[in-house]
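Below sits the subject:
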Amino acid sequence: MNTAEQTLRSAGAETKRLLRPLLIILALMWIIEIADWLLFNGALDGFGIVPRQLVGLRGIIVAPLLHGSFSHLAANTIPFLALGLLVMLRHSRQFAAVSIIIVLVSGLGTWLFAPSYTVHIGASGLIFGYFAFLLVTAFYERSPGAIGLALLVFVFYGGLLWGAMPQGGAISWQGHLFGLVGGGLAAYTVAPRRIRIRIDPD
């Protein structure tokens, strides 16, 4: 086996290792959605975030695993895997912390500011958070790798930003907006910094 083949196999093995936790989470989302459809007639969706109701706080944790339909879940599947993998590739050790920060900020923001008597579910807040994390991390790191990755992410997923704008319908733009905030906060918390503030004496 030559060096190129070894490098390719090593890269493939590493990618599989990084994908494993994402695939487990995604499989859980699909299992829950199938069970909700077959056994509960959609009743599990009621466990989502219910703004400003105490019982609705539980949704902050479980809402990313719940989806309103198979089409909703299918729409989130590829962005979740793609952006989640990119976060894992750059910051595998911090991935859990990044995800927790995004889920908490996105969920709490939705609970505080979304309209009353609504229920908010879906992994979109997490997806928006990964998107923001990759962009803001590039701002802090200022490394060629981080900047190149951020440009790539923006080219393919920059359209996500429209989803954080106020809009009608059954779209939880509040979850999207605070997902972006959570991703930025996660980057501020865990990303290495190469920015230095210089203060000159008077």
Summary: The CA atoms of residues 67 and 119 lie 11 Å apart. The chain has one domain: 3-190.
